[in-house]
Design goal:
The chain has 394 residues and is an alpha/beta fold. It has two domains: 1-20 and 324-394, no CATH class; 22-323, Phosphoenolpyruvate-binding domains (TIM Barrel), CATH 3.20.20.60. The protein has 17 helices and twelve strands. It has an eight-stranded parallel sheet. Strands 1-12 form a two-stranded antiparallel sheet. Strands 10-11 form a two-stranded antiparallel sheet. β4, α6 (118-126) and β5 (133-138) form a beta-alpha-beta unit. It starts with 8 loop residues before the first helix and ends with a helix.
């Protein structure tokens, strides 16, 4: 699979200076963690889940979470588990031929569980179709609650013979509350470091953070405008997202809105990138509260997050379009990492609009080239509007 793989090759060629690279479920963990992109959540109760997965994969989704936790009622869990077993068997049958379109459209699949015992049980019940599973999402993760989940994952991996990743969700009140935050973060850090080879990415549960204080951000505001939430994100990245080799990929919080609502503030999207035919796209984005989403994606990147939890298919393409590396970023990163610059120094950028300082910007450059590997590099005259319009369904 590859990002923007649903776009015709001749169109991709016109968009990308360097096209997104290919990857699959067996690719190295570092590559997969950067490639997750917009991870689309779906309740595990959906009766046509296998077809839904293939449809979304055909539209550019590369990672999905099939949820047995908050998205379904407590009384639905047994039926949802049985449905997963049935739907995975159907997916396995449809994608049995590696050259089939179904196999090409299959995203990375994860199951969000409620309790540790579900992990080995589901891995066993899936049988041979466990080969389609990339791992499990672990809710309300702390050291105390997380260790049993990771031990269960290890057991399931050994029993199934399948590499299985964990994606812990950081959403517990202990992490939010100031008096327990430092100890909770330290415990999480110890736990994920111990199981580093199995932890693909850390996910932020901002909805649960807001719930602890009876808050809900409106579509005019991002998670970073809610200061109590922004402070937790900053502390998580501070301890768990470092670029010194000890950190993990931390993904952005969910954007809750996908319907038109009355606006209280003026639109946040400026007009200039949308001049010409793309003005219609700008209007549509504003009407569907997507301008707030785009701003939050930009703030995710600025605050050290990569990828995003999504609950609606319409959010996927904006996340991916804004994850593409610009030609300017790519030029800067390449200049900074030139072998002859290994000793440091300062240089004017190729675009002659900034100074690139080799040593302080090295980690940024390395991360930028990793993102370029999976999301590609746009041509100099291509921006996110062109990427959005090219990726929209015809």
């Amino acid at each position: 699979m590859r990002h923007f793989g649903h776009i015709a090759p001749e169109i991709r060629k016109g968009l990308f200076h360097q096209e997104p690279g290919e990857f699959d479920a067996d690719s190295p963990a570092g590559l997969l963690s950067a490639a997750l992109g917009a991870t689309l959540y779906s309740p595990a109760t959906r009766p046509r889940l296998a077809q839904d997965i293939l449809k979304q994969g055909g539209r550019g989704v590369v990672s999905m979470v099939l949820c047995l936790e908050d998205s379904i009622d407590d009384a639905e869990v047994d039926g949802a588990e049985a449905n997963l077993v049935t739907q995975f068997a159907e997916l396995a049958a449809l994608s049995a031929d590696p050259g089939s379109q179904a196999a090409a459209d299959l995203p990375l699949l994860f199951i969000r569980v409620r309790k540790p015992s579900q992990i080995p049980d589901l891995a066993r019940r899936l049988g041979s179709s466990v080969s389609l599973l990339s791992g499990f999402v672990l809710p309300k993760f702390t050291e105390e609650r997380g260790v049993p989940f990771l031990e269960a994952l290890t057991a399931a991996e050994l029993a199934s013979g399948r590499r299985l990743f964990a994606m812990p969700v950081l959403e517990s009140p202990e992490l939010l509350h100031l008096e327990s935050r430092a100890d909770t973060l330290a415990g999480i850090s110890r736990t994920v470091d111990k199981y580093r080879d199995r932890v693909l990415a850390l996910r932020l549960g901002v909805t649960d953070f807001c719930s602890a204080y009876g808050l809900r951000r409106p579509p005019d505001m991002t998670a970073y405008d809610v200061h109590i939430v922004a402070s937790v994100i900053a502390d998580v990245v501070n301890m768990l997202g470092r670029a010194d080799g000890t950190g993990f990929t931390v993904t952005g919080p969910v954007w809750e809105y996908f319907r038109h609502q009355e606006r209280m503030f003026k639109p946040q999207l400026r007009s200039s990138p949308f001049l010409g035919r793309a003005e219609e796209l700008r209007t549509a984005l504003i009407e569907h509260d997507m301008d707030g989403l785009l701003r939050e994606i930009a703030l995710d990147r600025a605050n050290g997050l990569l990828g995003k939890t999504c609950i609606h298919p319409s959010h996927v393409l904006p996340v991916h379009a804004m994850s593409v590396v610009s030609h300017e970023e790519f030029s800067d990163a390449q200049d900074i990492l030139r072998p002859e610059k290994g000793g440091g120094g300062v240089m004017r950028s190729s675009y002659t609009n900034k100074m690139n300082e080799v040593k302080p910007h090295r980690a940024w450059a390395e991360r930028t080239l990793q993102r370029a590997q999976v999301f590609g590099v746009a041509h100099a005259d291509v921006g996110f509007v062109e990427l959005l319009t090219a990726g929209l369904p015809g």
